[in-house]
Amino acid sequence: MKKIFFSLIILLAVSLSADAQKVTPSKWSWALSKPNPAIGETVDIIFTIKSDKTWHHFATDFDEGGPIITTIKFKPNDSYELVGKLKSINPIKKKDEVFEVNVAYFEGKGEIRQSIKVLKDNIAIEGTHDGQACSDATGQCVPIKGAFKLEAKAGSNSDAEKKKATTKQKIK
To answer: Are strands 71-74 and 101-107 parallel, antiparallel or unpaired?
Structure first.
C-alpha cells in the first residue's frame, strides 16, 4: 500500500511539473545603431522587445507603485561610457485600472535606447535587463529577466575620411 501511495505522489509531481511551463511572452534583441562607430562617436544601443499577441511589456519610465518598471543595468567597461538615460521610444501611456497608476508599455514591438560614447577600438557591452509583461486576455503577469552581450569593433575611418578616400580613388 505504501508503494502505491508513493507512486501516486511521484506521478502527481511529475504531471504537475510537466504542466508548469515557463511563460516567456517577451523576446529581447539588441544592436548598435551603427555597426562600427568611430572612437569618440556617440551611438545608440537599440533594445528591441517583441511581445506575444495579447501581451504587453512595461516601459522604462512611469509612476511607481504599479507594475515592474523595465530596467537595464550595464556592467562597467572602459570601451564605452553611458550618455544620458534610457529612453523608451513611443510607448503607449495610460492609467492602469488594476495598478491605479499611470503606466507606459509596448504592445507587439517596443524599443528602448541608450546612448553611449565609444572610447576604444574593441567595444564590449554587457549587462542585464529586468521588467514585467502582462496579458489582458488572461490577467497573468510575469517577470522578464535576461542578460545581454554586444561586441563591436570601432570603425577605422570617420564618414568624412571614407568620403575623401573614395574621392581620391576615383581620381586615380
So the answer is: unpaired
CATH topology of domain 27-152: Immunoglobulin-like (2.60.40)
| pLDDT tens digits along 52-94 | 999 999 999 998 888 999 999 999 999 999 999 999 999 999 9
Length of the chain: 172
Per-residue pLDDT tens digits for 67-76: 999 999 999 9
Cα distances (Å, whole numbers) of residue 72 to 49, 75, 134, 148? 13, 10, 19, 10
This prediction's pTM: 0.77
Residues near 63 by Cβ (< 8 Å), separated by ≥ 6?
A: 101, 102, 103
Distance CA 94, CA 102 (A): 6
Domain spans of the chain? 27-152
